[in-house]
Amino acid sequence: MQKHALIILSGLILGISAVLLVFMGNPGNYGVCIACMLRDVAGALGLHQAQIVQYLRPEIIGLSLGATLAALITKEFRATGGSSPIIRFSLGFAGMLGMLVFLGCPVRTVLRLAGGDFNAGIGLIGLIIGIIIGTMFLRRGLSLGRAAKMSPANGYVFPLFILSLLIAALIIPSFFFASKTGPGSMHAPLFLSIGAGLVIGIMAQRSRLCMAGGIRDAIFFKDYHLMYGFLAVFVAALVGNLLVGSFKLGFIGQPLAHTDGLWNFLGMLLAGLTAILLGGCPLRQLVAASEGNTDAVVTVLGLLAGAAFAHNFGWAASAKGVPQAGQVAVVLGLIFTLGMGFALCKFKVGGEVKNEKTCGCQGTFLS
């Protein structure tokens, strides 16, 4: 168990932080939802005009800078990239559509479960099945190609952009859009949010915390190391919710959630499938982007673009349910992602190996 101590500690810190941030003002069962926070950041930057979800989430800034700091101190900061950028952008875009139909990323799936939300259980089943499908592609040699070493300047662009957002937020906060009502208006105090993000970023960088990766590793390698981290997230958040009185068991009346089981399932199926093709969930992508991985930066840009389109064109779900346009978007996202899966893997037809240009699944993982 000693070798799992770091991943368990990271999960405990994330779970406790999530409950604390909600207690201090973040929306219910929201905690540290990377997809939701990137959506709010997209709104703060004016990329979408949904006025109830616009806020430059300090947790994202802190998480990214914490991961960069940890990578620099441990000499793990490396500028790499050039591995199928347009496909990564598109898969990030599609994955965000699925998450905004479910209303949460893999991290929030666990946090919603820890808050008693049964709807998240249906989403978790979809997430697992999406990961299983993605793992089947990996077994057939799926790859987005191998990242190449780049000039260090490439790796510093994203962290410097995040740092510039922090400086601008402190000096001229009115530069950014900010919700006056709705989830975007609900937030914990600034420095608590930044501090929690910093700690989570440092721990996630050191432990490689990733829920989608944990389920993938359990299936693909029979390695349960990363899963310990998210079991710790669940336990910490569950105990925390019980202590502060925010645990509510059931389907109905859950914060920032809807009860449409089919689209909770399909939304997270799409999220799980794209996470495996990309090599990590949004949390892992953000951390990797902060370590100098420009492929992950492209994925984060895809996530931001997906959030912008979802809210500009009415694809995102709400507590009222999933709009028809959002349902169509998820189906198209699944068709696209499955098509990419088949196109990017090796497979045998009549004993002959096709698509020999791919180079194996190792290039897909964000280790």
TrEMBL record:
Q: Which residues cross the membrane?
A: 55-74, 86-106, 118-138, 158-178, 184-204, 225-243, 263-283, 295-313, 325-345
Q: Name one Pfam family in it.
A: Sulf_transp
Keyword flag Transmembrane helix: yes
Tagged with keyword Repeat: no
Output the superkingdom of the source species: Bacteria
Q: Which UniProt keywords apply?
A: Membrane, Transmembrane, Transmembrane helix
**Which InterPro entries does UniProt cross-reference here?**
Seleno_YedE, Sulf_transp_TsuA/YedE
Official protein name in the record: Uncharacterized protein
